[in-house]
User: Fold these one by one.
Assistant:
Number 1:
Amino acid sequence: MDRRALITALTALPVLGACSGRDATAAEANKKLPAPTLNPRAAGGLQKAVLAGGCFWGVQAVFAHVNGVTRSVSGYAGGAREQADYEMVSTGRTRHAEAVEVTFDSKVVSYGDLLRIFFSVATDPTQLDMQYPDQGPQYRNELFTIGDEQRRVAQAYIAQLDAARVFPKKIVTKVSALPAFYPAEDYHQDYLFNNPRQPYIVMYDQPKLVHLKSLFPELYRAKPVRLKA
């Protein structure tokens, strides 16, 4: 179902509690995964990571609540600049994925730490070209790596999780070099924080923040970093 049609349908329903709308399969998918065995600590300084894991509203909000993250931006990756537009991306024919660009202080949180959070609470990496109600290649799981080190860490962590069989199915997350990242339209930025009671957000995205706080209290910060005050 198209996300806008889904939102329209959900709006007709009573607003639920933060976790009550998540189905059993989704709830069971949220668990604290083992730390990456390959997780080099950088000497410091700001770095960027681009991750695609379904609807960017929830993923963007998750990383906005992570200690060490200084910026979290919803956008598009994998396609051409001229097609980095929500209406076009939503057709599933532009090669873009809805993605989030995370700027982080590597002295506080590592790229491997971000991947651990990503796979533990932000997405289900076993779903191919979809994420819960959202279907299409624009909702695929993909890590758009920046540099050889990110590529090595990402590939090693996926192999580690698959070998440990922490998920009931094989991880389908792709690892690709980032061609470019294009920020999404303004109304998509901080969407969860601006629309906390929208039924789609309540049902599918607010639970991610609950799990982040519960599973990673050492990395969780109550006040998120927002693009606009």
Number 2:
Amino acid sequence: MIPPSVAPLQQQNWQQCLRDAVTSPRELLDILALPANLLDDIEAVCRDFPLRVPRPYLDNIEKGNPYDPLLRQILPLTEERLTTPGFSLDPLEEIPANACRGLIHKYPNRALLITTSACAIHCRYCFRRHFPYTENSNSRAQWQQAMDYLSNHKEINEAILSGGDPLNLSDKHLEWLISSIAEIPHIKHIRIHTRLPVVIPQRITEDLISTLKSTDKNCIMVVHCNHGNELSRAVITGLKTLKDNGITLLNQSVLLAGINDHADTLAALGEKLFSAGVLPYYLHLPDKVQGTAHFDISEAQALSIYRELQAKVSGFLLPRLVREIPGQTSKTLVHEPVSGD
């Protein structure tokens, strides 16, 4: 149940928050008191990858600070238009693993469902910014092919709802997807990867909780939070509500230059997540997608930060440092080089 303390979250409908997201570069600069001379460059970048940021997320950004770590995640920069050697449109080689419409099968026991092309927020480091969503958009009838694929591949025991962001879907459609997957006997886990509880905490509603509790499968929610400043009181309240209703909560972060590339920042994030009932899970090296090279962290830098983080936090607050390598059967742990590596 939603406790009375969450009542303020219900005062604004989450779907209204989606509709009211800021998509105008001029409005973004006005709201955040940023220099008007940024406008032309931002508008040029947005022709390739549009601006989109919900107003509840904007409330957590310091006005007039162009280096705010939340702003840097959503502010279009001219660096996005550079072509960088070693970066590609499909760095994870997901397109060849696109087994049928809306389904990616890269890892033996897991399949990922592209439930929607829509996101509540356009993160500028997004690794699916060039993904062919049009070719993977399914009607309910078209989803049957994906369900048949899951049914016929008994090695798959986990279905991962991704996108876009699956919590952009209505509760009714989300409940239909979850119940359809739950009918497949060998699926044991249903995992939802989402940024919405962090960027629009109003999304945590009675209906959503009922939907997540409607199945006897293990239901796991992996939220995506990169910096402790994203965890406002409203976000923490929503996450605690999910945890109190039996939803397993994990967090994945991306290690981003100029945003969270310090051990102290990551340690503070882990502590704040844990206080909200969320376990740190993955710390990703950025995927090498064209347009995001300015966020990149080398493996050597990442290991240095990680060693320092390991010395600062308890083991249960230490996420796995990973990168995704195409063709591998799982995410690859980043570790100290040994002789012969």
Number 3:
Amino acid sequence: MEYKLTQYSKGGGCGCKISPAILSEILAAHNVGAKSNVPQLLVGNDSRDDAAVYQIDEKTAVISTTDFFMPIVDDAFSFGQIAAANAISDVYAMGGKPIFALAVLGWPLASLPASEAAKVMEGARKTCADAGIVIAGGHSIDSQDPIFGLVVNGIIDIENLKRNDTAQPGDVLILTKPLGVGIMATAQKRGLLSEEDLNFLVKQLTTINNAGEALGKIKEVHAMTDVTGFGLLGHLTEMMEGSNLSATIHYNQIPIIPAVRTYIAQKTIPGATARNWSSCSAGVVFGAGIDEEEATKLLPDPQTNGGLLIAVAPDALQKVQTILKELGIQYTEPIGTCSAAMDNRIYIHKD
């Protein structure tokens, strides 16, 4: 029997995330960071960064993160690959090297057989092998919805640590994967996605962001994060707010999955898109000539295992582009720039 996993879950991928506004409410009394009474905690949740970072000696720190969600694709093996790649990405986004993982599994045994969960695990092991790590253990429960993800631990030389709140005025911004994952995944759940577009989607979702480890060694890379459930606008807003800067984005230079406009026309828009837009729209200004109806569907579109958003000094741009191209990444052109804080956080121009 063929099982379509997305039919057994309410959401899918990083679109399952609680909205930024509600998350802020939940965590209002639980901000733990470098200013706490734990001086070894270099990064906590106070800066909304990708992972926690804990110093273990004068030179080295441990990076620890967890990420899990409900199926974003129907195939169990692919779901495992995607969930693992997405979780590992948080270590790469800090500039770190992943070292091992633990599995987090919730499975509705009354409606899906254990053999499907085994395929999920198999896919996750494949992705972890690609990243050079093993799944060393984990925890599982019998749950109403299928859920899978990883706890991932990594290491980093403290001097190479990248945060999401340390961009500098004049930095150029690069996004290493095209937008539209949430829209495409919603089209698949509704039975509208073509086989060709599904193959493109799965390839993007399973591609690990290992460029982050190499970029960690470049001091002119001032800030980095990965674009996931809050969409490009949500994660860019976090970067600009944390760095006390503003960003100017060139809409026509943002990489977009080629077929995505076909599915926008069919209104395959995830529910999380509107929540994301509501959370960040007050700080976004559109310039003349932009199709705002399209932009408000694409720019807050929840991404799963999305691209790295990199803030790099202009004089190191070519060095970064060379590294990305050597790793097979074709999206290396700047999408915008950072500047001193202005009245709004993000200004979007057409060209």
